[in-house]
Amino acid sequence: MPVPHHPPRLAVALGAPQDPPRPDAAHYAALARLAERGTLDFVTLGDRFGGPGPDALAVLARVAPATRRIGLVPTVTTTHTEPFHVSTAVATLDWVSRGRAGWTVEVSTTEAEAALVGRRPAAPPAEVWPEAGEVAEVAGRLWDSWEDDAEIRDRATGRFVDRDKLHYVDFTGRTFSVRGPSIVPRPPQGRPVTVVDATGDTGGPEGTARREVAASRADVALVRAEDPQTAGAARAALRERAAAHGRDPGALLVLASLPVELESAADAAGLADLLGDWYAQGAADGFHLRPADPARDLARIVDGTVPLLRERGLLRRSYEGTTLRAHLGLPRPASIYALAREAS
User: Fold this and answer.
1) Which of 19, 158, 203, 324 has a CB 3.0–4.6 Å from the CB of 71, allowing a cystine?
2) What's the per-residue H, E or C state across the chain?
3) 205-216: pLDDT as tens digits
């Protein structure tokens, strides 16, 4: 497997599955600042539609002003949420964080969650994942619907926007339609970073559907694997599918998502060895760490593993950019509508 030429990307989950829901954002803000001290690329915060506790996107919106550089990536469920509202909320997170937002696309498949809304019955993964891909597509179009210089803010003439630089998206999907344009100006990153957990039921329809959305729509795909060979094979397959969708396969970053439980400082050194070994084998473009105990394990990652990775040239010593896209080495995309207008 080819060895990547860029330093590995590094992200961490702020919550563990067994963690009780936290009633406020202070806990997550402290963890995010810790990850920022370690110059990690981004943090993720999981969420389950209708579950207890505050909404992950709202929590990270509160964390945004308490941090300066770390990327903020909440889970957003698309199944029972209007796509227009999804795009607006994620764009708002990008604005309040000054260009550090992403979102992890997720779906809902249970009857209990469907009953909370009452608009439609639950559907299987093979149906809701293609819909999620369409939500990701229309979100991108809505973010593009304001050209970068659409805002005028001319008090003398009373003109706030150049209406010629606002665009209808006129998108019709399987279960929804969106006319647009967005009610929020184009986000600082142009398009916030889209993340998809591409693992799921590896051999079943859910896994296939997840991988298709990751290959066609994601900037970052997460892959859960127990060895570098499995991770590397998944990375190659995802990039092959991305090429089949007409994408540059190198534009899709694949991170191995690994569980982490550090009992001592020595385990911090073992983790550095493991990450370095997997990366040298070309298993992934980086790593998404899932601590068993975030409050304990993240401190040991930052104070133990991070210095070792820096010594080996596998992690930055300071942030060079200010946006999540800059951290990940992803370009800021131009608005598709601006490109079309310039080409006409």
Assistant:
1) 324
2) CCCCCCCCEEEEECCCCCCCCCCCCHHHHHHHHHHHHCCCCEEEECCCCCCCCCCHHHHHHHHHHHCCCCEEEEEEECCCCCHHHHHHHHHHHHHHCCCCEEEEEECCCCHHHHHHHCCCCCCCHHHHHHHHHHHHHHHHHHHHCECCCCEEEECCCCEEECHHHECCCCEECCCCEECCCCCCCCCCCCCCEEEEECCCCCCCHHHHHHHHHHHHHCCEEEEECCCHHHHHHHHHHHHHHHHHCCCCHHHCEEEEEEEECCCCHHHHHHHHHHHHHHHHCCCCCEEEEEECCHHHHHHHHHHHHHHHHHHCCCCCCCCCCCCHHHHHCCCCCCCHHHHHHHHC
3) 888 999 999 999
